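hey so i finally got around to running the thing on that chain from the lab meeting. sorry it took forever, my laptop kept dying and i had to restart like 3 times. anyway pasting the input first so we r on the same page abt which one it is
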Amino acid sequence: MPDGISEPENVVGVLTERIEAHFGMDLDQLKAAVAGAPTTHPDATDVVRWHGLLVEAQSVLERAEDDLLGALETQPSEVDDPTMDLAHRVNAAVTTRDGRAMAVKWLLDPDALGRKDLAAERLARLRPRMGPAVQTSAPHRLPGVPVPAAAPPAGRPAR
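ok and heres what got predicted. didnt touch it at all, straight out
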């Protein structure tokens, strides 16, 4: 991976350090703060969520690599189909891990492409709302005021 992460197996460690430096606290403290008030700092909530996904992907990758190495140790000179399937599983796990690492790096970079443009503003509007929900009950009617007739469904003639 680019951006100062030279050893793929150290991706999680490097990004953990960047998260801690960015937020000025230990990752466990940040997780606790986010768990206690997830809507207070949406960026921290997103980073903690994606870091958890990254850690999970790294674990899946390590298991897949161990399975592949175990299979390769028992192989004769040619690799069989089940072992090739394990190799494909490792490749998929690397892709997943790297994608999640890129998401964490993007979340940590306030100047990253897409963080300050119209698309970012639209995405911010999709986040859960903090305020009260819009009233959905029928409005209060004064006694003696008739209720307006409902319009007929589209495509049907009025009777």
